[in-house]
HTH cro/C1-type domain-containing protein
Amino acid sequence: MSVSPKEFGKELRKLRKEKKLTLTELGKKIDLTQAYLSMIENGRKGIPNSDTIKKLAKGLDIHYTQLMEMAGYEISLIEAFKGVVETPKKVIEVSLPAMGKEETGDGLVAYGQLTDDELRRRLFDLHELLNMDVDLYYKNEFLNDDNRQKIKTMLQTLFE
């Protein structure tokens, strides 16, 4: 679909005003000048390139494919879903037992300090997780020892 720079600018202005942003405020958010944004909105700068459209979308807090379509660009399905499926990562603090217990072949038990890598591995290893002395939940239901044992039995049946 072909769209004129004036039509694109008019729609862009409408979106900006819906977000209650001035040209100056939007410009500061995305590092573009108020004058340049004004030229885009008045159709005097042509249709912006995809990089500028991505900046505009970020400043307006909308998915860039909405603006790309508005500008008349064709978008592949992969591009359309890029960013929708990806979620930002959040760092959280989790307290885990810092000592590991290992049984040797002759029945002895050895204890030792776990490395950061070993703690990370254990955090995502179902066997280790089910054997840890931490509260576990499934769909907000606390897993007691009986529940944990049932889960371990099911996993052993599936994988061993």
User: Anything to note?
Assistant: The CA atoms of residues 45 and 125 lie 55 Å apart. The first strand starts at residue 99 and ends at 103. The chain has two domains: 5-81, 99-159.
